[in-house]
Write a structure and sequence with these properties.
The protein is of the alpha/beta class. It has 7 helices and 10 strands. 39% of the residues are buried. The structure holds adenosine-5'-triphosphate. InterPro entries: AAA+_ATPase, ABC_transporter-like_ATP-bd, ABC_transporter-like_CS, ABC_transpr_LolD-like, P-loop_NTPase.
Length: 223
């Protein structure tokens, strides 16, 4: 799969003053399957906004976002978020009083799918790829931050998405765990042939990525 952003414009409008805050003006960028991309840029420049546009949580004004030859607006939001895009956040967003297994299978149930034996197998496979297969029946509250983030990555991949968006995935981790999570994201992009896009302030994580983009002056630069 290829994501192409073409001549994209986006501004937030202040509902009280009706003033516009421009975030993107005539932006172009491409993302290819099998690669990990880092998105850097100063705080408030638009990294999370880019993710929201890619997940159709925000609607752009002009331009186009394409998944291969299809406009993002041709997909239903449900299809986009269940089959194409999945997200990982800085705070893991796991349910602490449930086990790792229960957290992973819950993502299948939320998608209104019946949990099958193959889902259990997939959960174990993903945990093994992330080196935490021994935590399958552990309560999330008993895991370290680095382990929780690896569980949240496994959960994000349960429905086999083609694109993984990770917003500051190492923001709450120490250096050693950050690098481990960064390396795992890189491996997953290569081994599973998915697009992994990581918004980060951490230059060591950006260095792990195959390609680097920086958001600056309403543009996305690099690639
Ligand atoms: N719903 C909104 N309405 C108006 N302005 C918003 C809204 N959401 C974000 N903004 C503003 O848009 C700008 C970009 O926000 P965004 O969250 O994309 O930045 P970011 O690069 O992810 O920042 P950080 O690195 O601090 O997470 C910021 O100035 C923010 O205050």
């Amino acid at each position: 799969m290829k994501i192409s952003i073409q001549n994209l414009d986006f501004s937030y409008e202040n509902k009280n003053t009706h003033q516009e805050r421009c975030i993107f003006a005539q932006v172009n960028a491409e993302f290819q399957s099998g690669d990990m991309y880092a998105i850097t840029g100063v705080s408030g420049v638009g990294k999370t906004t880019l993710f929201k546009l890619l997940a159709r949580q925000l609607q752009f004004h002009n331009g186009e976002i394409k998944f291969d030859s299809h406009s993002i607006n041709d997909f239903s939001i449900q299809k986009l978020r269940q089959e194409i895009i999945s997200q990982v956040y800085q705070d893991y967003s796991l349910i602490p009083y449930m086990t790792v297994r229960e957290n992973l299978l819950l993502s299948v149930e939320i998608a209104e799918l019946k949990v099958r034996h193959s889902d259990e197998e997939r959960a174990k496979e993903l945990l093994a790829e992330l080196d935490i297969e021994d935590k399958y029946d552990t309560l999330v509250s008993d895991l370290s931050g680095g382990e929780q983030q690896r569980v949240s990555i496994a959960r994000a991949l349960m429905l086999n998405p083609q694109v993984l968006l990770a917003d500051e995935p190492t923001g709450a981790l120490d250096k050693e765990n950050s690098l481990l999570v960064g390396e795992k994201l890189h491996q997953l992009a290569h081994n599973r042939g998915i697009i992994v896009i990581v918004a980060t302030h951490d230059l060591a994580i950006a260095d792990i990525a195959d390609k680097k983009y920086r958001i600056e002056d309403y543009s996305i630069i690099g690639g």
